[in-house]
Q: What sequence folds into this?
């Protein structure tokens, strides 16, 4: 996959746009699949495999993880999805490899090995696996590959991601009400669009609830490193932050907040069991929603390469229960807002609707205008109210 | 590293068991020690596996097959061998001169940066016959510069090269990060870090359908070159003498400062070539996480290979197999991924421990024959 000229790049953006509009169709299909699986019934003809679950060899699905499954983090959330897949669908066999480095030599070897072992579906769950996934997919045209969080697709490679910014925004509304110092801290992994979008969504929520508050960002340059994450959180707490949130894969920042008597907003999974006195709520993932639908489509032979970007309404993302220490009025506000996202009244596009200013106060999105998918997917600037540098 | 201690124990610490240099470490003892070390490592690793309820034989078989059992697994082991071999040779030659180059990781990155820069910005339209040699030179030069800096500081100012070479690792890795997040970022990469892909002419040829690339030849040629330098050249002789006794070398009229600089640059150049070959042979772009720590693993490779080019080549291959085979424990057996590094650590621990016992021997002293009477000690 060599793309060096502007022309090819533009055509890719066009292709992306086309796929993005196709998402609605995919989402519809996903909804049907989930409804069926929850009800536990199968409709003869609609899903041939479901009608005879034990017939034929099992479908093999492999997962490549960037960190250990561990406790309540990104990989844990994906592994919950894998388990949901095994529990919901008959005749599915899964395997996985944890802590696969994101360098091309190791990642490609592991992905290739899973394909060679006869897995019909290989899911790679970190951005760094994008190019390796594409490379391997070329040699295994009959295998279905899904890369989480990237932008490259192929005939047999889909991408999938979720609008975690929606619950992040609501968590920001709550956090903005809970801060006393008006200084919030954000422990963030890498300055890439995914993380920058999340910081912006959170900050927009915070500032909506509390226009005087600011969000300070510290980059750790790692997805998973409890010690580094904790140090970053401590530095933010030292600087006066009294609510810590994160785009990291462990609960270490939440535990740092708890140790100082500060609040926190978790990520990936409900992190309150690991820091019950700190965690106000957590934007969370329900990957099973997507994985179950993916396997159904492959089994039914209806799967086509696509770029899935599921939202709160689809059930892919959610907000964990709001903690008891949050005052009743704030909790009610949070739940009201959450309900608007669940029913689709609000979306990532309403969150990112102008007027939006960048850190210098310059208007980036005019009043009433929603940001486009392309603008969101390539976001490399911070909104007003973020303290920090969106470049490393 | 560890100088053999004289036989007398210090009076304050009357040792019962102590290490004593073997008079003439024999080849037979070395081989025996290696075999016993591996056997012990597998035994202890097996006990841990048994304790966690797994069948050690099955685990070992899966690891072995995963590393050497098929054409594709063998190919992947060779892919992993390339950077370990080049960086191992690089640090090995520095260690021979008692120069502790801990900076192979950074030298690898600078080599990768230089080679990428040539391919993307200097000669993007050149044919492979021009571009690949140019990238090789750039990789060598990038690594050499990164090695020469601590070399210069050590040679001219006596600054400890362990610290400076180690610190330059962070500089080089952050420079690469800065480039792939900033000025070198792929303009159509949706804001994600990483350069665009190198032009096709920059891709090192591969062996059939495997990922084994021309870098393997670089590694083998480098091993031969290091052997020739050490065995057949005046410079190699000087390296040996300086490694034994720098002061003696200076009295003998050897240009010690120049040699320190040259050896550090040479050492860095080999690591830089490893970076170039990872970019041109595997990733085809400069990106974050180019190396999972090859420059540090190289230190183990060099020591286990007795700082000898042939030994380093063999150890790089076996260690690559150990790392590649380790993946299979989870992929094929569904066991926790942590078992692989645990087993790898156990095996390395016993090998390095056995290594010490090959060159030194444990001596038991009865207290009466040991230190002088306590009264004589002040």
A:
């Amino acid at each position: 996959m060599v793309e060096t000229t502007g022309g090819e790049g533009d055509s890719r953006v066009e292709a992306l746009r086309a796929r993005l509009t196709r998402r609605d169709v995919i989402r519809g299909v996903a909804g049907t699949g989930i409804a069926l699986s929850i009800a536990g019934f199968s409709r003869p003809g609609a899903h041939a495999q479901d009608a005879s679950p034990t017939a034929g060899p099992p479908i093999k699905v492999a997962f490549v993880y960037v960190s250990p499954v561990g406790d309540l983090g990104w990989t844990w959330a994906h592994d919950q999805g894998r388990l949901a897949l095994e529990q919901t669908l008959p005749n599915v066999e899964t395997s996985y490899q944890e802590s696969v480095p994101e360098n091309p030599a190791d990642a490609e070897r592991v992905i290739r090995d899973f394909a060679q072992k006869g897995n019909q579906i290989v899911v790679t769950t970190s951005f760094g696996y994008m190019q390796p996934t594409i490379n391997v997919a070329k040699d295994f045209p009959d295998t279905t590959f899904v890369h989480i969080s990237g932008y490259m697709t192929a005939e047999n490679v889909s991408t999938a991601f979720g609008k975690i910014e929606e619950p992040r925004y609501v968590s920001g509304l709550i956090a903005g009400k809970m801060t006393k110092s008006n200084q919030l801290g954000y422990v963030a992994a890498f300055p890439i669009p995914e993380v920058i979008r999340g910081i912006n969504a959170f900050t927009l929520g915070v500032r909506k609830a509390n226009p005087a508050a600011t969000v300070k960002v510290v980059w750790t340059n790692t997805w998973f490193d409890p010690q580094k994450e904790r140090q970053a959180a401590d530095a933010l707490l030292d600087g006066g932050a009294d609510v810590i949130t994160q785009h990291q894969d462990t609960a270490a920042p939440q535990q740092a907040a708890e140790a100082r008597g500060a609040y926190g907003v978790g990520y990936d999974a409900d992190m309150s069991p690991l820091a019950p006195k700190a965690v106000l709520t957590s934007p969370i993932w329900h990957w099973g929603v997507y994985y179950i639908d993916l396997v159904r489509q492959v089994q039914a032979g209806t799967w086509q390469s696509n770029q899935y970007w599921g939202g709160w309404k689809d059930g892919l993302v959610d907000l964990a229960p709001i903690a008891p220490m949050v005052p009743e009025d704030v909790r009610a506000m949070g739940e009201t807002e959450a309900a608007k996202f669940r029913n689709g009244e609000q979306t990532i596009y309403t969150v990112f609707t102008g007027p939006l200013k960048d850190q210098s106060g310059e208007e980036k999105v005019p009043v009433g205008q929603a940001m486009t998918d392309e603008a969101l997917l390539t976001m490399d600037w911070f909104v007003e109210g973020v303290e920090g540098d969106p470049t490393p | 590293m560890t100088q053999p201690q004289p036989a007398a124990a210090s009076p304050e610490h009357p040792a019962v068991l102590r290490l004593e240099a073997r008079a003439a470490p024999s080849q037979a003892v070395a081989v025996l020690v290696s075999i016993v070390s591996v056997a012990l490592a597998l035994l202890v690793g097996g006990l841990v596996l048994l304790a966690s309820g797994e069948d050690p034989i099955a685990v070992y078989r899966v690891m072995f097959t995963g590393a050497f059992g098929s054409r594709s697994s063998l190919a992947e082991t060779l892919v992993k061998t390339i950077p370990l071999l080049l960086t191992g040779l690089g640090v090995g030659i520095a260690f021979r001169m008692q120069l502790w180059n801990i900076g192979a990781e950074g030298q690898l990155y600078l080599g990768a940066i230089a080679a990428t820069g040539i391919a993307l910005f200097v000669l993007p339209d050149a044919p492979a016959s021009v571009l690949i040699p140019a990238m090789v030179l750039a990789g060598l030069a990038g690594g050499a510069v990164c090695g020469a800096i601590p070399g210069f500081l050590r040679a001219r100012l006596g600054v400890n090269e362990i610290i400076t070479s180690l610190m330059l690792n962070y500089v080089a890795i952050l420079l690469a990060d800065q480039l792939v997040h900033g000025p070198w970022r792929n303009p159509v990469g949706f804001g994600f870090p990483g350069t665009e892909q190198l032009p096709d002419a920059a891709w090192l040829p591969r062996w059939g359908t495997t990922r084994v690339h021309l870098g393997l030849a670089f590694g083998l040629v480098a091993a031969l070159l290091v052997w020739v330098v050490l065995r057949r050249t005046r410079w190699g002789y000087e390296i040996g003498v300086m490694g034994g006794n720098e002061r003696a070398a200076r009295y003998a009229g050897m240009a010690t400062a120049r040699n320190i600089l040259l050896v550090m640059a040479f050492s860095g150049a080999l690591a830089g070539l490893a970076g170039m070959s990872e970019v041109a042979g595997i990733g085809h772009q400069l990106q974050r996480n180019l190396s999972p720590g090859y420059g540090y693993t190289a230190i183990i490779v060099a020591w286990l290979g007795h700082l000898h080019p042939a030994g380093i080549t063999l150890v790089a291959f076996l260690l690559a197999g150990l790392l590649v085979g380790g993946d299979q424990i989870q992929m094929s057996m569904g066991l926790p991924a942590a078992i692989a590094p645990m087993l790898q650590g156990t095996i390395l621990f016993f090998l390095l421990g056995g290594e010490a016992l090959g060159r030194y021997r444990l001596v038991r002293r009865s207290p009466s024959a040991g230190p002088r009477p306590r009264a004589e000690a002040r």
